[in-house]
Specification:
It contains 13 helices and 15 strands. Helix 1 crosses helix 12, helix 4 runs parallel beside helix 5 and helix 8 crosses helix 13. The protein folds into three domains: 122 residues, 3-Layer(aba) Sandwich (Rossmann fold), CATH 3.40.50.720; 191 residues, Dihydrodipicolinate Reductase, domain 2; 63 residues, no CATH class. 34% of the residues lie in helices and 22% in strands. Strand 9 and strand 10 form a beta hairpin. The protein binds nicotinamide-adenine-dinucleotide (NAD).
């Protein structure tokens, strides 16, 4: 029988906990033997959950690498801004790393991490959970089977619901350069651009351009009567779709868990929620039009591939519902689908059929268990364990070297957007 892989958690936040909890479901795969977090509460939580010895709990990566290596690998679930600075010492100390996306903020950081991993001979896998979602896996299989011919165009779009957009990308940590450091395209859609690169892996990107702006979440778009704090000084709070009271206190299923996670309460009560949201300094009660928004709320990206194919990606924050859409056009047919629908259609050119085409509706088939990201969260950690053990991984396993293709597209799109849409050679 194999011994479980020994794992240390660096950054015991929402994401790391999801992956780490798999060790409780499948203890034969891995065991959490250490934790690092700057927040003592998160360290305590991990220590109790995974029965971690006191001497394996740390408040910084520097302290962790000051002691001899006592595990096989690390899950790094810190925020985007510190992914490279926290991962480099781990690799140098001999740990393989499962690193959350985006793995870097720009080309320079990406190069630092790539050369460090190479120099140290360590494995780095990036959490591109959507590659594991059956919807995209099955689309990948259809494309690679050649059924729809050579791909001429791939069109993808991501809609972010108004309540997800506001809680994460306007009021929350992903809008903050100090906490997160990524723009919207990098933090939200590096998954989608990675998927595009993966589905188009018979060729390589050649050029990228992009435009985008803050369309909605700025002071001049505030309705008349809007205040600064939803619970204190807003005359239109009752009619505002972004009312913090309406979204997080009266409809708590709308991403409010992320808010309570940021509070000092472990199991927050209803009364504490109202008190917390009512604090004048509470980030999540701020008027969405007056948050000093610095990241775009919509963006369009155009990609040219080396074989002449084209790709487009459209990202819109503030939609009625979240959704990911895809339309792939090949020389023999096309694929059309929406991730949330759990099926996609494959339409093929067929002159002898009525209408001149065949249409096949392909239902998404889920593996047992696994819910989040279409089962991707659980599959990603299992693949990482296989990678560390030197076993065969799934076709979805995204190493640092795989992930860099999509990340570079995003970095170039951002440069292009800052230069008014100028075409950037990849
Ligand atoms: N793969 C996905 O689908 C997906 C989804 C959401 C978020 N993410 C990414 O996952 C990462 C984590 O997101 P989250 O929501 O879990 O964040 P989080 O804020 O819940 O967790 C981050 C943790 O890191 C800790 N931390 C901060 N600085 C640290 C340091 N210097 N050393 C050690 N620990 C430190 C914080 O105290 C916190 O506990 C982000 O990069 C985010 O973009 C990925």
């Amino acid at each position: 029988m194999k011994t479980p892989v020994r794992i240390i958690i660096v950054g015991m936040g929402i994401r790391s906990e999801i992956y780490a909890r798999e060790s409780l479901v499948s203890p034969e795969l891995f065991k959490v033997v250490g934790v690092v977090d700057i927040n003592p509460e998160r360290v305590r939580h991990a220590r109790e959950l995974f029965d971690i010895p006191e001497e394996n709990c740390f408040s910084s990566v520097e302290d962790l690498v000051a002691v001899p290596r006592f595990a096989d690998a690390v899950i790094n679930g810190t925020m985007d801004r510190i992914h490279v600075q926290t991962t480099v010492p781990l690799l140098e100390h001999g740990y393989d790393v499962l690193l959350e996306k985006p793995f870097a903020l720009n080309c320079e950081e990406a190069d630092i991490l790539l050369s460090c991993a190479q120099k140290c001979g360590r494995k780095v896998m990036i959490c591109h959970v959507l590659r594991y979602a059956p919807f995209y896996r099955q689309i990948h299989d259809v494309i690679k089977s050649g059924q729809i011919g050579r791909i001429m165009n791939i069109r993808m779009a991501e809609q972010i619901s108004y309540f997800h957009e506001s809680v994460s990308y306007v009021r929350g940590k992903y809008a903050s350069p100090q906490i997160c450091g990524s723009g919207l395209l990098l933090s939200k859609s590096c998954h989608d651009i990675d998927l595009m690169a993966w589905l188009m892996s018979d060729t390589v990107p050649a050029a990228v351009s992009s435009v985008g702006s803050i369309f909605q979440f700025k002071p001049e778009m505030a309705p008349e009567g809007a205040g600064t704090h939803c619970l204190h000084d807003c005359a239109i709070e009752k009619d505002c779709p972004y009312s913090a009271k309406l979204l997080y206190l009266e409809n708590p299923q709308r991403w409010a868990n992320n808010i309570w996670h940021d509070s000092e309460y472990d199991n927050i009560t209803e009364e504490q929620k109202w008190e917390y949201m009512g604090r004048p300094e509470n980030l999540y009660s701020r008027c969405v039009y007056r948050c000093g928004q610095q990241i775009v709320d919509h963006q369009a990206v155009l990609i040219q591939f080396a074989d002449g194919a084209t790709g487009t990606f459209s990202l819109n924050g503030g939609a009625p519902a979240s959704g990911r859409h895809i339309h792939v056009t090949g020389t023999l047919g096309e694929i059309i689908g929406t991730f949330e629908d759990e099926y996609f259609e494959v339409r093929k050119i067929a002159p002898s059929l009525p209408g001149g085409r065949s249409v096949e509706k392909i239902q998404v088939v889920h593996a047992e268990g696994g819910e989040a990201h279409g089962g991707g969260d659980q599959a990603v950690i299992r693949d990482f364990i296989a990678l560390v053990r030197g076993e065969e991984t799934s076709p979805c396993c995204t190493t640092l070297q795989d992930s860099v293709v999509g990340h570079r597209i995003v970095f170039m799109a951002e440069q292009s957007r800052e230069m008014g849409g100028q075409l950037m050679q990849y």
